[in-house]
Design a protein that fits this description.
This protein is mainly α. The chain is built from 15 helices and no strands.
Length: 260
């Protein structure tokens, strides 16, 4: 298949369409370097083609070359300065590069273009969380909640931010709303447990961990948390039994690995 496209490329070396299909084949084969080479050829042929630049940026992200990925997205932004989607992609790369202040600037511009986009507001929350502006993060979530009523993720984010602010009671209320919407989501229970532990409600924390164990049985980290929580409750025998079970599981797993 790839050989056929190579023949087509020789015959039509300036055909961007062939280069783009050729790139798709390399993507399937996970030849990211080859994929990038083809799109860069396409960029030479069509330097103002925003689609080619965006794919170049995405491939460079796959290759973890975030600085070069940002340069490509920046070129697209010059071509399409009022595109909220491009601003969100550019913000994402800046966030990876830990440039949170500039990431927030891009999100603010995107929000002006799409004021009713709840995703932009939740991304603003993420960046403000990174900047430890928890009050600002909560304000963004309150705005998002207007457009996305009964959204489980927004309830979870609310709980996480309120927990950062030390408002554990309201954080639990938000997480309980999320739990009603998604009763089988272990991640909600984990945050719930974390907050209860901060409130020194170890009995409640243990109940959450027991429920997590139903959805993620024999997870070593959850078992370890169960052991430490039982220890806090002075249930030393149970705590010890869990630790022994974890060690046995590790030894058995290592033995199986060695004998295969």
């Amino acid at each position: 298949m790839l050989e056929d496209f190579e023949k087509g490329h020789v015959l039509k070396s300036t055909n961007t369409f062939i280069l783009m299909i050729y790139e798709d084949v390399k993507k399937i084969l996970k030849d990211y370097v080859g994929e990038l080479e083809d799109f860069e050829k396409g960029h030479v042929l069509e330097p103002t083609n925003a689609s080619i630049l965006m794919v170049c940026a995405n491939v460079k992200k796959d290759l973890k070359d975030y600085v070069e990925a940002f340069r490509d997205v920046d070129k697209v932004h010059v071509i399409q300065p009022n595109n909220a989607y491009i601003l969100m992609i550019r913000e994402n790369v800046k966030r990876i590069l830990k440039d949170y202040v500039e990431a927030l600037e891009d999100l603010d511009k995107a929000h002006v273009l799409e004021p009713n986009n709840a995703y932009i507001l939740t991304f603003c929350k993420d960046v403000k969380n990174k900047l430890k502006d928890y009050v600002g993060a909560l304000e963004e979530l309150d705005k998002a909640d207007v457009f996305e009523l009964n959204n489980v993720f927004i309830f979870m984010f609310h709980g996480g931010v309120k927990s950062n602010l030390g408002d554990y009671v309201e954080a639990l209320e938000d997480l309980e709303k999320a739990h009603v919407l998604e009763p089988n989501d272990a991640s909600i229970l984990k945050i719930h447990e974390y907050i209860k532990k901060n409130m020194e409600d170890y009995v409640g924390a243990l109940e959450d961990l027991d429920n997590v164990n139903i959805f993620e049985p024999n997870d070593a980290f959850i078992l370890l948390m169960q052991s430490t929580t039982n220890f806090k409750l002075k249930k030393y025998q149970i705590a010890l039994e869990i630790i022994i079970f974890i060690l046995q599981s590790i030894i058995i797993g290592y033995w199986k690995l060695e004998n295969h």
